[in-house]
Amino acid sequence: MEILIRSGAIQEDPADAIIITVFENSRLLGGAQAVDAALDGALSELVEDGDFSGKEGQVAVLYPRGAIPARRVLATGLGKAEDLAIDAIRRAVGAAAARARDLGARQVTVEVLDARSKEIGLSMVGQAMVEGCSLALYEYPAERKEVKDEREIESLTLIPPDDTADSLAAVESGARAGERIAAGVDLARTLVNHPSNIGTPTLLGETAQAIARDFGLNCQVHDREWAEEQGMGSFLAVAQGAGQPPKFIVLEYCPPVMEGADTLVLVGKAITFDSGGISLKPSENMHLMKGDMGGGGAVLGAMKAIGAIKPPVRVIGLVPATDNMPDANAYKPGDVVRAMNGKTIEIRSTDAEGRMILADALCYAAQFDPAAVVDVATLTGACVVALGKGVAAGCFSTDDALRDRLMAASQATTEQLWPMPLFKEYREALKSDVADIVHTGGRYGGVGTSAAFLKEFVDYPWAHLDVAGMALDPLKARNSYTPKGATGYGVRLLVEFVLSW
Ligand code: BES
Ligand code: MN
Ligand code: ZN
């Protein structure tokens, strides 16, 4: 979909559909008023009759029949004006865009809402509108023999609320950022949606190479032998039972001015399929473990957006990628292995594999002298039990300022995050008789003990995001712009975190 920005009057736009955003039970504003006048009050009649109140989620379709050049007018509800938050704009435009697509519209135009009186600038609104529209239209390119439906929106045109050069520039910059971020989210969704026989570590490596080529990043996709040379005994323990060759992906974005720039490292767990290994999972929902690379997918998606946006900070993406499989060569409960920092780990459940591959990736991150390292992982079912499915990711951090930055990014993007504790008792639960540490702490506090384990491998400001409940929901859409299946959770959050560094 092409994103166009131009000044003008929305009532004169010849699109297949124009989108009008309307606050609940309030009078029409700006372009909506002009459209209403041209339609001889049809829009306000709809509101007065109560057929369309502007409540969030409502979309009404009107046919101007020649009164204005547009074929259709889609009024979409923003909810109450006094409650306006940026996400209401994403959701309203998302709902309208999906409807426009279903109606077969190809050219769609929307007027950028003027929310400056609410401290929401035109750039933010432009970004939210593009994100809402692009993200709502996402569809997984499913592996079907025949393509079912070819309905697709070709262009979205944004019209600023006034024609000053400043407004045009603000909308332009927000819209371009939104476009790049949405492309990153879509990439993460597609990687998570891929079945594991397609979304292999090799494919993730090729994807990273393609991002590097497209945006001028540095990229290395390392193999098993390289990991052996590095002493990554923890990552390799998981990979040793995998038929698919494991990959350790390193993507580096350097800002135009490197001098004085901080380095941020993003680490993403990419278990391309988590069978549980020898500690085999029950078969019932095992197919969902194709999504156990949601953290790695989010990091690749974020790197793609960052490569396109080019912020003034150096960003490294690390993605350890492997299947976790039962096999004659697989690692076993009771095994002891040595991580890259020399610490030995006693294995209890081979299903606690995510922390194993992260341990070595976190050790590897230290060499970049990072100002902060953030890892993202579908790490524990316990986190889903604690915070809910599709509700929030858990945020652990050794650094209050870093956690505050992540919480602020969460606020700005509405990708919900909640702070979690690193109590010393969690570490005590990981004492081993035969090694430096056991990698699981038993039934209680499973999310806390997993984070305490990871903490043993860091010596820099660090945060860990447990996104187990957030990456993939096969049953329901979260909102108008987050369809069911892979959500792409974490991409917008990570990009916002990096852009506001
Ligand atoms: N990938 C799973 C965690 C998970 C659960 C992700 C649900 C998404 C949805 C992880 O590797 C795992 O198996 N964790 C175990 C840890 C346990 C063995 C200590 C768990 O949570 O049960
Ligand atoms: Mn597991
Ligand atoms: Zn896992």
Would you give an account of this structure?
The two termini are 30 Å apart. The protein contains 15 helices and 20 strands. The mean pLDDT is 97. Strands 7, 8, 9, 10, 11, 14, 15, 16 and 18 form a nine-stranded mixed beta sheet that branches. A six-stranded mixed beta sheet has the order 1-6-5-2-4-3, covered by helices on one side. By secondary structure, it is an alpha/beta fold. It has helices at residues 30-38, 42-48, 86-102, 122-136, 165-193, 201-215, 224-230, 233-239, 294-309, 354-365, 381-387, 400-413, 424-428, 446-455, 491-499, and strands spanning 2-5, 17-23, 59-62, 73-79, 107-111, 155-159, 218-222, 247-253, 263-268, 270-274, 314-324, 336-338, 344-346, 372-377, 393-397, 417-419, 437-438, 462-466, 472-473, 485-486. The protein is 36% helix and 19% strand. The site of manganese (II) ion has 4 residues, from loops.
